[in-house]
From TrEMBL:
The keyword Nucleotide-binding applies. Keywords: ATP-binding, Ion transport, Nucleotide-binding, Transport, Zinc, Zinc transport. The keyword Zinc applies. It comes from Rhizobium jaguaris. Residues 5-232 form the ABC transporter domain. This is ABC transporter ATP-binding protein.
């Protein structure tokens, strides 16, 4: 598979108010890209549009031959409900659902892979723990184990290292770098600019509109960062609607579809 994921004039709105505005460019296969920008810049919205959870109000996302099963997605921790009575093992096995048979049965091989994935994130022996009993860092490790089991070609991470300690961050960052080494396409929303500069070759800097997209050393320069901040400071939440010239009736509102 060697086709990029292309964004063409992508605009995503919430009730016609643009959260992502006229973004164009491409994620090359096998690239490792950070999405950076101020709070409310549209970073999470952009990820959701890439996986198809939100529909464009204007423009498009061209995923080529990729299907939903090719995408592994880690939402922001705040979007994940943790008080379901579900074990660590079952949470991880959800990553293998695409391999399960017609009756949702998992193979012995899947169970072994789940154990391996748990060991790979440093949580061997945690299978029976209730997810509600885990620390934030342990839970994030479980979600990474689920992604390992899912074995997706494209991996989207929304603030994967927020509110977790340095050791966990380092361990999970190693997994991200391994995914990149395997040739997967990885896109991660990040707030830590040192992390972006240190480990992510490509950056997409957004402040609702694109500020820069390309090599990290080119994009993360002081001018662009000042520009992004200034664009955020000038946001007018009461600005008029975003009305595309020719808007198909079925695209009038960004529509939420069932999340993973
Ligand atoms: N479900 C929603 N309904 C209406 N507006 C929304 C919704 N989700 C996000 N927004 C708005 O869209 C804009 C972009 O939000 P988004 O969460 O994509 O930003 P972000 O860059 O990920 O922010 P942060 O860094 O704070 O997580 C914000 O103004 C936000 O208030």
């Amino acid at each position: 598979m060697s086709v990029p994921i292309r964004l063409d004039n992508l605009t995503v709105t919430y009730e016609r108010h643009p959260a992502v505005h006229h973004v164009s460019g491409a994620f090359q296969p096998g690239s490792l890209t950070a999405i950076a920008g101020p709070n409310g810049a549209g970073k999470s919205t952009l990820l959701k549009a890439i996986i198809g959870e939100l529909r464009p109000a204007e423009g498009s996302v061209d995923r080529g031959e990729l299907t939903r099963n090719d995408f592994g997605y880690l939402p922001q921790a705040a979007d994940i409900v943790r008080h379901f009575p579900i074990s660590v093992a079952d949470t991880i096995m959800l990553g293998a659902w695409k391999n399960s048979g017609a009756f949702g049965r998992f193979s012995r091989a899947d169970a072994e892979r789940a154990r391996d994935a748990l060991a790979a994130v440093g949580l061997a022996g945690f299978e029976r723990r209730h997810i509600g009993s885990l620390s934030a860092g342990q839970f994030q490790r479980v979600l990474f184990a689920r992604l390992l089991l899912q074995d997706a070609r494209i991996i989207l991470l929304d603030e994967p290292f927020t509110a977790i300690d340095q050791r966990t961050t380092r361990d999970l960052l190693d997994i991200v770098l391994r995914w990149h080494g395997d040739g997967r396409t990885v896109i991660a929303v990040l707030h830590d600019f040192d992390q972006v500069r240190g480990h992510f070759p490509e950056t997409l800097l957004i402040a609702r509109e694109l500020v820069g997209w390309g090599r990290t050393e080119d994009v993360m320069n002081p001018d662009n960062l000042i520009k992004a901040r200034a664009m955020a400071e000038h946001w007018d939440e009461d600005a008029g609607d975003c009305a595309p010239e020719r808007e198909p009736a079925h695209r009038k509102l960004a529509k939420r579809e069932p999340a993973e």
